[in-house]
Amino acid sequence: MPLDHANPAAHAATPPPPPDTPPDNLVTLPDRPEIPDYLRDTYHWAYLSRVGRAVFDRPGMVSAILWGNARRLMGDAAAEFGAGTRVLQTACVYGDFSARLAERVGPQGRLDVIDIAPMQVANCRRKLGAYPQVKLRVADTAAHEGKGYDGVCCFFLLHEVPEDYKHRIVDRVLGSLRPGGKAVFVDYHAPRRWHPLRGLMSLVFRWLEPFAAALWQHEIASYATRAGDFTWSKRTYFGGLYQKTVAVRGESRA
Description:
The protein is of the alpha/beta class and 254 residues long. The protein has helices spanning 8-12, 37-47, 50-56, 59-65, 70-78, 97-105, 118-127, 163-175, 198-207, and strands at residues 86-89, 110-115, 134-138, 149-155, 177-188, 230-237, 242-249. β6 and β7 form a beta hairpin. The termini are far apart.
């Protein structure tokens, strides 16, 4: 709301916020990106619907979707970042993952959370009001121009975007790091051939998540234009169905 510079009394008449109001950690950009077609067409039910938000933004539901692995995957991802660091989270996540990251970086650190869907940013703001070190804004990770982050966390985002977006997101994530910084990607991975859920997950991908199967065929590093500038490591979970891939940017040479 614009300030009334012509009437100082109007400013004095504005009542202070109630003491129990959570800090306003919502930062908006002048121009909000448009919702891409793939998100409207494929994931409206999950991320652009109030019903979907009410259904899926529950710890028990998140755990069920990840076959009981949510706490482990979230915990291992958050553990990659230290107190006092500046971290970027590339999309809002259902459940308490952002709170875990906020607690991990602590009050001396900073967590920036971006998402292309205003509804998701507003929902995340509601959950993170107790963490003044968190800043949220509406932004497209595939076009984000952040710099100098100690860490970037991309938690179950790549499987939800088309191939061209995967390339753009990975490059943007890696380009956001300071020398020595790390990017952490947690997402699906090709399960072992004997995995009892391999067939079922193939059907889930075919019906509900058409961009996910690509991660069964390609390493995340293959989406990076300058993969050689980073040191890559990977750990898999739950019979190979999930992965944590870490890319550490090389230190600058004097």
